[in-house]
Amino acid sequence: MGYRQRVKSYDLIIVGAGIIGTACADYASQEGLRVAIVEPGPIGGGATAAAMGHLVAMDDDPAELALAHYSLDLWESFTDIAQIEYSRCGTLWVASNEADYARIPEKLSRLATAGVQAELIDREQLYQLEPHLAPGLCGGMRVQREAVVYPPGMAQHLLQRARRSGAEFYADRVIALTDHGVQLSDQTQLSGAVLVATGCALPELLPQLPVRGRKGHLVITDRYPGIVHHQLLELGYADSAHGNADSSVAFNVQPRPTGQILIGSSREYSSDTPEVSMPMVRRMLERTFRFLPVLRQLDALRIWTGFRPVSADGLPYLGKAPERSNVWVAAGHEGLGITTSLGSARLVIDQWLGRTTAIDARPYDPARVAA
Q: Fewer CB within 10 Å, N side or C side of the chain?
């Protein structure tokens, strides 16, 4: 006897329940859309779970900065949600030499133009703010209103809100896009517009949009409250984040609300396995110890890896998918997916609704790659 194929209809079917997909589901549901969200694994279990969780405005690309600033304003509505462990520790960018210090006024100007408030920190102020930094640093730049969060907690919170607004969740895998929606692995057919938010797995459903997985390592310590007060990054961090080197490391340390210290960051294109590479971890830690030698004395509890989804040009794909009818995409955020998740969701859903977007959506149009 044959089976009867099940078909359910929605306004929007979201594929992927990382922080990008759940942010899209939350916003679409709040706007009254009938939403389905499909995810076979843990909620926020991919790149979201592996992320540091920094909420930070990077000023090296105008489009990236515009999206980050827009999204950071939206994060202000979530500061009191215990589940996401929001901590407004501020970001302190550290200048290791005079050349880096000389770059700060230009960075301040770019941030101010975008509406981000930041301040120049001289050498004396630097050590007042962070006494454990290595001697000989030249100063820095502080962005006081920036924060860190626990990304899987945010993904779970967004999905819970979406479901309270009527969204339906399918713990299943999308095996194909169809003319009218998607097909799940259990042969269920869902009908409606589709939004693909699957990070590194994007090419499985949309091969015309290239994404590379960029591996990263993170280390977290035992509880040592009071050693680090701000999220700390070296001013050369963006060179590592935006560079095309096969592997790189940069100083990036966060104080977590638990009293633990989260240590990053590394980037690799050459490895596609999740195994920890101790040579890369040692390289990353040696970079960290140059700025914070006190960390040599602390005990680490855990090391893990994850993969950042990198688009063809470093900007996320946010909009209608090329060569497909009624398929949309939100993916390819590299290391800024946590920061830009809420803004990305609004940008895509507002386009789908035919609304004028809050910021110019053209730099993120997926068609730019197909063209």
A: N
